[in-house]
């Protein structure tokens, strides 16, 4: 009787299928409990801002009046936005292509370098630098002043090594002292002279400390008589330190101007040319009889070469892209290098045994096998360059900011940088999102397909 009562009171047995179903349900609850904080964070930081921006794009600048698609229409009528779209297209085409190509070449070459790890570390190091710091570094490197900008310092050094530079860019003649300035910037004697005479050409505008080393007083050279078949003279600094002296005459303390080109001109043509000595003296020998003008060519007074205007309207976008390449080349090299390490070596060795050279192996085997990796790197960089903001905003100076602007900077400028039109800025943000989404979807599908 007792056994019968206990048997009736015991619960029915649970089927194995029910047990599995309950276990799966508990697993889903536990998984949801772990994922929920991340989902809440994702919703607060990504989903809500996206939805809010989409909604805000249909309202005016104040956010109180519904304007429908007017912001999207205005967006494509604004010349600054059109320029931003054009610059973004340049970025998308140029930067990922160059980076993928550089990364591929460097990844292949690094395999043949003895200190490959150190080389990779060196190239990857810029990734540890923030875009803000990199922008400041390149803003200084691109400075137009050769004393500050390292690139212009190098360009000016190379230019001056091959072309030379003028010694007296600030020199000029006093008014009414026998020298007349030509239209090309040269100086010539007002009154013609003839062989057998000595002329003194006084200039001002040169600081005594800027004179070349070895410059000597011009007093004696300016008074030395000339032979009957020669024309002599001296070019000197018509300035006496501490005052005194007579204008238009070489005094005892006044220095000659060495290394200055002097020409003898007859009938509008230079018939002889020479350079001044340490005391500023010069002479033309074996001149025929006649009247000559002594001329100091404009090359003596040409301003020094200042280098390239890297951050001017024409070059500012390529300059910013150059800074971007410096930062991301290591990233592309490391990713492509990882794919290169996974290539089947037997295919490469078989090609070498068949007589293929390294270029043929690279073009016909390495690149085709790396195509999936190259595609992922390229698309990842496309997504990244569409969002580039820091480098453009920091490197491009204010006057050329509009010439370098991209969609991300234009969105910020319209919304917060003076435009104060967050409706139009939100429309730009939505446009940028629509441009990025296809590349993101493509990359996610490639990533899933590779697994």
Please outline the major beta sheet.
Answer: 5 strands, antiparallel
Number of helices: 14
Radius of gyration: 38 Å
Order of helices and strands: HHHHHHHEEEEEEEEEHHHHHHH
Head-to-tail CA distance between termini: 64 Å
Please indicate the count of domains.
2
Structure notes:
- The protein has 451 residues and is of the alpha+beta class.
- The chain folds into two domains: 70-154 and 310-449, MetI-like (MetI-like fold); 172-301, no CATH class.
- The protein has helices spanning 2-9, 16-56, 70-75, 79-110, 116-124, 131-141, 150-163, 316-341, 345-353, 358-386, 390-395, 401-404, 407-415, 422-449, and strands at residues 172-173, 179-181, 187-189, 198-204, 231-237, 261-266, 269-275, 281-284, 293-296.
- The model has no long low-confidence stretch (mean pLDDT 85).
Strand and helix layout:
Blueprint: H1 2-9, H2 16-56, H3 70-75, H4 79-110, H5 116-124, H6 131-141, H7 150-163, E1 172-173, E2 179-181, E3 187-189, E4 198-204, E5 231-237, E6 261-266, E7 269-275, E8 281-284, E9 293-296, H8 316-341, H9 345-353, H10 358-386, H11 390-395, H12 401-404, H13 407-415, H14 422-449
Parallel strand pairs: 4-5
Antiparallel strand pairs: 1-4, 2-3, 3-9, 5-8, 6-7, 6-9
Helix pairs in contact: 2-14, 4-8, 4-10, 5-8, 8-10, 9-10, 10-14, 13-14
